[in-house]
Specification:
Blueprint: E1 3-9, E2 18-23, E3 32-41, H1 43-49, E4 63-64, E5 68-72, E6 78-81, E7 84-85, H2 91-94, E8 107-109, E9 113-114, E10 121-124, E11 129-132, H3 143-159, E12 169-173, H4 177-188, E13 192-197, H5 204-211, E14 215-218, E15 234-239, H6 244-251, E16 254-262, H7 276-285, E17 289-292, H8 298-314, E18 323-327, H9 335-338, E19 344-348
Parallel strand pairs: 8-9, 12-13, 12-15, 13-14, 15-16, 16-17, 18-19
Antiparallel strand pairs: 1-2, 1-4, 3-5, 3-10, 3-19, 5-6, 6-11, 7-8
Helix pairs in contact: 3-4, 3-8, 4-8
Bound molecules: zinc ion (2 copies).
One zinc ion (ZN) binds next to helix 2.
Length: 352
Amino acid sequence: MTRMKAFGVRPPEPRSARVLELPRPEPRPGEALVEVLEVGICGTDAEINEGLYGTAPQGEEFLILGHEILGRLESGELVVPMVRRGCLVCSHCRRGEQDMCGSGSFSERGIKGIHGGICAYIAEAPSMLIGVPAAARAHAVLLEPMSVVAKGIRHALLIQKRFQWEPRRALVVGGGPIGLLATLALRALGWEVVTAARKRGTSAKSAVVAAAGASYHSVGDASLLSLAEGGAAFDFIFEASGSAEAAFDSMHLLALNGVLCLTSITGGSALKTVPSDRLNRDLVLGNKVVFGVVNANRQDFVEGLAYFELIEKKWPGALGKLLTHRVGFDNAGALFDLQKTGIKTVFQVSRD
Ligand SMILES: [Zn+2]
Ligand SMILES: [Zn+2]
């Protein structure tokens, strides 16, 4: 059996991430062998490494990390695998909307029950692969997070079909990769965008925001709620800060008839006092909508590619600026420390 290097954890053991030697997967009939080029690292990987979640494939001890995968088929075509595979039982999964699974018994590559992509090869069903144009090679590792942004925007636009919506201003809460991708996508659509993030002063993050013509608000200098001073309100808010407090505070910043998309998966169990009468009253009297999104399906991945094209046409090289660190198997141990600085850390699996 051919073996390959991989980077994975032993769930649920905390801080168990290490370089492993595991058998190279053999594609089953109908499956394609995908050579992995790069894998993006995000907060989910860090939380799996902390033992907060993550499940190894049935009967196995380790889970290979990595769900933001860019790979290549034998034909040379670039591909990105979708993360979630459906339960095959509920009507949503059977329709290809596995991101909306109604049974909860789905699996997720690199997260829940299936190995991730920080290894030389994965075997994958062609129905799970998204073809990527060669022109997107430099930033295609961002397609998985971009698909979540595309889904959030798509759902908001669908929800707002409930009336004649005339949006002008958007607020993005969070300066991580998802927040910055949302900033770029909304600017590419021509929205006026304010991006609120923790980091003070000028940084790689504020530079991305400014280059796309959005304005940067540091919540280190003035609170998120200070954005409401002077009656400022936002027609669309995309929340990706990782903080439940910011999610609830965002509700106070919605304009009349506005819509708030929540994407932060807050792992804790913190209790917080909220002005429940006021929040409820404002939602009712303002015809406001608050909704959550997780994961994405084929339509969102394909729309993500369309956003990439739009963004690169307006601000060439902007997406590449999000890829601030690279690691490989030689220095994999530095991965989670590096990830705390910069924007997106990429695990370089293949040399080319
Ligand atoms: Zn991720
Ligand atoms: Zn399902």
